[in-house]
Amino acid sequence: MASAIPKKDVVRQDKRFIDMMWENCHEFFDKEKHIDVTFLWRSYHKRITAHRLILAAASVYFDELFQTEQGSAPVICIDNIAPVEFELLIAYCYTGRLNPKMHNVSRLLNGATILKLDGAAAHCTAYLKGSTEGSRSPAIPALQFPSNHPKSSNITTNNSILAVRQRIVKEFTESCIYRCDETEKLWIQCGVLKFPTQSPDLVYFNKRLITLGGISPQNLPLNCVHSYNLETQMWSKLPLMKFARVGMCVVNVDGIIYVIGGYISGSATNTAEKFDPFTLQWSLLPSMFVSRAEGTAVAIGDKIYVLGGIGIDREELKSVECYNTKTGKWRKCADMLQARFNCGASFFKGLLYAISSGKMQSPYRSDVERYDPKTNTWSQAASVNIARSGICGITLSDRLMAVGGSSSTEWKGIVEVYKPTQNTWMKVRPLPSSGNYKCFIVPTKDLIEIGSKTKSPRIIKPFVQE
User: pTM of the entire structure?
Assistant: First the structure.
């Protein structure tokens, strides 16, 4: 077999073929296809899978390890490198890219040295020396991302995505928390916790996750509010909402938390209220034109757009309205082209995108439309590749993303990125676990500071006072 392969120096450099081959390798890694080795830790609930051939080609350490009795086992236990840094170094084997930060550069350098990844160690050393060459990729042409791959971008940002997964488990909602920034483009688990109520809504404020409302064990809506401090990993209670509700829209505008619509006593409502975390006071807002639950709210500047939902007669809604936080007034906007509830939504390049829908019955929806506030008109956009309900729309820097959602393929949390020049969606590295997510744009430095103070991920008991 080997004799049939031409020598390396006479092989034509077919860039298209190389790009396609490595893009497939990245997809195999992301989707855990054809994997043949799994790494575990005794002290962490973490599992990382990979391909022996790729690792052995990138590292002498792995090449030698896989020839030993220990390395021949399908599962290998790692003791001397923490899982977060190990996962970044494994990704480096596939991408040739590593972006050390001050909070992890020492651990990455130690791990790169153990794994004999000279290029990764050079990245860390250059970063510590403050060299401008530290951001350059080492000379591993075959491991570079193809030009059309999302990781090929050199754009950096000061923000990250904080993604919180919600899933009902008996009387509690268990949640995994992940972060992803433009530089690393990896989903890294920050923690695991249990929410104090079923089906609460969620908002981020000042390094805290605020849960609002939800359902009691007797299946009644709640007006309770709790705050989870990401630094101390402690819960505290906040003043109750004026109305017990579930399935509402919640947004943060300039530090004020707005709660809009939802189910009250089993029926959709048009009421709204706001909470000032600085004064700890709730106050009522003018009511919407339309009663709605399970709608979607997106804030931009001092305006809150509320899209679709389920109406008072259990009908799916096309209607859209906008609340001006400065004037305290609602106004009607043009109806969407399609009725939607629990859809994803985000502003991207001046347009508001409405992504997919819960839909009353399967199959789930994949269609997307966009709204131009200047002309008050909706138009059709490209559909996502995978139809699903409960998508979260989020915009980070120059990328519009459709994150998570429930679909027929539940093996991982689906993530797609919109390519406006081609009007298409592209599947990218998925979240480690499937489900519906609530996502927030958070300053990266806040998450780094939180990560440096918290312990390893663990399940947090609810109702522990700060």
Answer: 0.67
